[in-house]
Write a structure and sequence with these properties.
Number of strands of chain B: 11
Strand content of chain B: over 45%
Radius of gyration of chain B: 14 Å
Shape of chain B: globular
Low-confidence stretches of chain B: none
Number of helices of chain A: 0
Largest interface: A-B, 21 and 26 residues
Strand content of chain A: over 45%
Number of helices of chain B: 0
Oligomer: heterodimer
């Protein structure tokens, strides 16, 4: 079965420091991987996706993620965190028309 | 990019009444729509998948008679929570799936509806 794990419920980082939100997946075949961000009482906003091609994917708001097939990971990164990046982040894997979301990681960027 | 309009953004209703949530794709047509439910501090759980012109497919454990889904056209899907109870209070999000080659592959989500049943 396809699954997504986000091992950290909460990540705290100081403003200006680099941030990493971790994601690992378990799928058969070649995965399509996504990151979404959710602000309080809001829907999901698309950040980036990996379908094929370069393992390093650049997305919205300065975020990027690296697809690592050997480690089955797709960690989200940003070189310099902003307080406004504080939100709930979801990793997701797609197979066919189905999406499986990870449990989410709450990112808090401290001023 | 694709835009999805979902409304209402929040609604408070009395126990026993029904609430309808609408989801529209504004600039594209979608044959398949998805409805998710999100409990506080939890991830999104798929409730059902609807295809235009046919009955929705519900996930295990989701009551199809309570959560009525209608996908009347390629741009509109509705979720009606019938005879709502406080335990139905949640955040509901719709999603359209689009696939036009790998560059446009993915979901577009509505902004969500916060339902509170009192």
């Amino acid at each position: 079965a396809q699954s997504v794990a986000q091992p950290e419920d909460q990540v705290n980082v100081a403003e200006g420091n680099p941030l990493t939100v971790k994601c690992t997946y378990s799928v058969s075949g070649n995965p399509y991987l996504f990151w979404y961000v959710q602000y309080p009482n809001r829907g999901l906003q698309f950040l980036l996706k990996y379908i094929t091609g370069d393992n390093l994917v650049k997305g919205s708001y300065g975020f990027e993620a690296e697809f690592n097939k050997s480690q089955t990971s797709f960690h989200l990164k940003k070189p310099s965190a902003l307080v406004s990046d504080s939100a709930l982040y979801f990793c997701a894997v797609s197979y066919g028309q189905n999406f499986v979301f990870g449990p989410g990681t709450r990112l808090s960027v401290l001023p | 990019g694709a835009v999805v309009s979902q409304h209402p953004s929040w609604v408070i209703c009395k126990s026993g009444t029904s609430v309808k949530i609408e989801c529209r794709s504004l600039d594209f047509q979608a044959t398949t729509m998805f409805w998710y439910r999100q409990f506080p501090k939890q991830s999104l759980m798929l409730m059902a998948t609807s295809n235009e012109g046919s009955k929705a497919t519900y996930e295990q454990g989701v009551e199809k008679d309570k959560f009525l889904i209608n996908h009347a056209s390629l741009t509109l899907s509705t979720l009606t929570v019938t005879s709502a109870h406080p335990e139905d209070s949640s955040f509901y999000i719709c999603g359209f799936f689009e696939e036009f080659g790998t560059r446009n592959y993915g979901y577009t989500f509505g902004s969500g509806t916060r339902l509170t049943v009192v």
